[in-house]
Amino acid sequence: TIIAEGVPSPIKMIRSSGNGSVICVAGQLPQRLIVWRPDSQPSAVVDVAWSEAQVVDADVDESGHDVLLLCADRRLRFLRNASQVLRYELSAPKPIWGTPLRCALGSGNSSGWAFFATQNGQVGAWNWRSSEVRRLPDYGGEQHENILLFEFPPQSVQLRIGLQTSTLLMDESSEFTDER
Questions:
Q1: Strand ranges (DSSP E) for 38-97?
Q2: Bridge partners, residue 67, by sequence
Q3: Rounded average pLDDT over 122-137
């Protein structure tokens, strides 16, 4: 099955949700956001030009309707019928700092939450329904490891962060402490 033709390079990311919905971000500004929902009747492809800010990472929920974008301007964007935007470095009481790296939509008990990580080793959770932002435990110390995996597996209740030497599990209620 050909989902889209003439996709520009580079392909920034491709990710699949638990039921097979796929999101692809490709090209430079304007970028192309392509969401494929194979389970809808007929299967649907949403293909839009995106020119607001460079997309660093993205996720799509199992329905293929909710899209989360983590952008180079240090904002999370939740897209549904109307978009909501979070400037995470301005969130209180514990801001999350750093260049955006990875994002994931929660599922199960964490439905309604968006999770994101920065190159500073910090992790945050944003509830786009209530506008609540939480700082979660850091994924790294002084020497931050590369994140190899940042996802909410289908039917999971915890975010999985895969590093080169370990795997961390957390949810929106995981506690951040300033102790090091």
A1: 44-50, 55-60, 67-71, 75-79, 83-87
A2: 60, 79
A3: 88
Encoded amino acid at 115, one letter? F
What residue ranges in the chain does DSSP mark as E strands?
Answer: 11-16, 22-26, 31-37, 44-50, 55-60, 67-71, 75-79, 83-87, 100-105, 113-118, 123-127, 132-136, 149-151, 159-162, 167-170
How many Å apart are CA 156 and CA 153, to the nearest integer?
Answer: 5
Stated pTM of the model = 0.86
Tens-digit pLDDT profile for residues 26-50: 999 899 999 888 876 666 788 888 8
Compute the distance between CA of residue 59 and CA of residue 86 in angstroms, rounded to an integer: 16
Could you give the CA distance from residue 172 to residue 168 in angstroms, rounded to a whole number? Answer: 13
Dist. CA 35–CA 38, nearest whole Å: 10
